[in-house]
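@channel sequence for tomorrow's demo:
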Amino acid sequence: MRSAVALALILPVGFAAFEGWAGPVDNDADDLVGVWKLQSFSLQVIGEQPKEIFGPHPIGYLIFTVEGRMMTILTRADRRPATTVEERAALLQSMVSYSGRYKVEHDRIITKPDIAWNEIYSGIEQIRYYTLNGDTLSIRTAQQLSAILPGKKVVGTLTYERER
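structure tokens (generated this afternoon):
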């Protein structure tokens, strides 16, 4: 009988310790799961005014899976197929794309990309601050080095609508 009582007391402690390994996760994490369509994207070089570097109507999607993976791709709307080396390079400058595991902590989405269009992101935690208002997701990046504007520190601001 004493063994059963001891086991009953130990099991909940063991399960609680195991759950803690996942890290703190906000209740909004479930609300983020799905496909989000980009509505706006601006980039602010520190010390300058924000600019719509992908034009007034960028194209993009952000996907969060229930398994904890995210994927994103953003592009200019006016991209055309490349026929020269310079045009191919310009295509890389007119997009952002990466994927990795994510977790949600309070007002932050933290992603560690394991694949990216530009290796500046691979393996480095990407912190995004977010607000969720119904079907609108607003994201602001932490200050970071830009993959599009080499050597510049930037903050990106993005707005998405849930795709139904």
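heads up for whoever presents: The chain has three helices and nine strands.
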